[in-house]
Design goal:
about 170 residues; mainly beta; Jelly Rolls; six-stranded antiparallel sheet; globular
Length: about 170
């Protein structure tokens, strides 16, 4: 799949209208200008990309709660088992260190609230069948902003597979 492209696999359409940043980590410098802490998150990933997948799953601070990352090791799941989520206070940089998964994306007005916003966890859950799926391979990342509902961890062709992901949380 080409860098920067997603497709509307949820509705079996050829086109898509949901822009999302999807690229290779080697190109992350192209996005430094979006937000200073986003640039810091990308730089951290670039400097430590080889060692991060070996860390135990959990939360690791870079700059306190302003910038931190989560190491996640899991098996992808069928789309029907996925959960749409969104955050208000943080950008997500979801970097796939090992494996391949689909990440869904929809504008908040394309999904319906399922669980109201949880301030402590900075998330709300949604449901819906609109949006697009992006195939994200090892060495690639997707960036999700607060206006983006996203559904990560989805199996390619409904075949669960192991992945190692680093999610950098960037306070806005």
């Amino acid at each position: 799949m080409s860098t920067g492209l997603c497709y509307d696999r949820l509705n079996n359409n050829e086109g898509w209208d949901n822009p999302v940043i999807l690229d290779r980590l080697s190109n992350a410098a192209n996005y430094y200008g979006i937000h200073p802490q986003l640039a810091a998150g990308f730089r951290y990933l670039q400097e430590h990309a080889e060692s991060l997948p070996g860390l135990a799953p959990g939360k690791y601070e870079i700059d306190g709660n302003d910038l931190y990352f989560l190491v996640q090791h899991y098996n992808t799941k069928p789309l029907a088992e996925g959960k749409w989520e969104a955050h208000r206070r943080y950008f997500d940089i979801q970097y796939l260190a090992e494996g391949t998964e689909l990440m869904g994306f929809a504008h908040l007005d394309q999904v319906r609230i399922k669980k109201e916003y949880d301030e402590a966890g900075d998330y709300a859950l949604f449901e819906g069948d609109e949006g697009s799926l992006c195939e994200v391979t090892a060495g690639s990342f997707a960036v999700f902003a607060p206006q983006d509902a996203h559904i990560p961890g989805i199996a390619v062709d409904e075949e669960p597979a192991p992945v190692k992901k680093i999610v950098v949380k960037v306070l806005i």
